[in-house]
């Protein structure tokens, strides 16, 4: 079976009861989503103009994530497991470069976004793809803890794997959807000056993540 190809982990305690595993998998997934990162920054930035931006960002995230889950299921976790691997270095470098570009553009347009409602030059779906595909930590998480969850889900067969994907993606949709929606609904409560400072902070945050990713690639 395919999942037998990814059992070469040092320690793993499978949960054989699906009524326990899937709630645990959801809690682990949701706790990972809550960690601030590039997707958090773009969800707030895009949510300023579009209340459904978070759902589109989560969909872009899923475009990268679901195929990766399937690759791990078929035994490709080893290509992402080592932080210094050439593949992760390429992802880190070019992903970091793209995040720096997005941060630079957002910082330059921070006044225009607030005063004229002009959006970032990247769609919400595209922002989800970029901030996911360019994040080396995302691949390392899936090659370690995420791979263990995939293996456990595979114990319940293809339906178990499908249910795991649905459970995991629902955590992304819920959090980023709420984050963008809350930003959109509360923007009228804050002054234009506050929004300008917020966009400046988010722009610098994206650029900082980008610099970090590039530095990790060159280390």
Can you walk me through this structure?
This protein has about 220 residues and is an all-alpha fold. The chain has one domain. The protein contains eleven helices and no strands.
What's this entry about, in short?
The protein is mainly α and 219 residues long.
**What percent strand?**
under 5%
How would you classify the helix and strand content by structural class? Answer: mainly alpha
Rg calc: 18 Å
Number of domains: 1
**Mean pLDDT over all positions:** 81
Taking the sheet with the most strands, its summary is: none
Helix share bin: over 70%
Tell the overall outline.
globular
Please provide the ordered H/E string of secondary-structure elements: HHHHHHHHHHH
SSE layout:
Blueprint: H1 18-33, H2 38-47, H3 53-73, H4 78-81, H5 86-108, H6 110-116, H7 124-133, H8 136-143, H9 145-154, H10 157-186, H11 192-218
Helix pairs in contact: 1-10, 2-7, 2-10, 2-11, 3-7, 3-10, 5-6, 5-11, 6-11, 9-10
Keywords:
disordered N terminus; 76% helix; mainly alpha; 11 helices; 219 residues
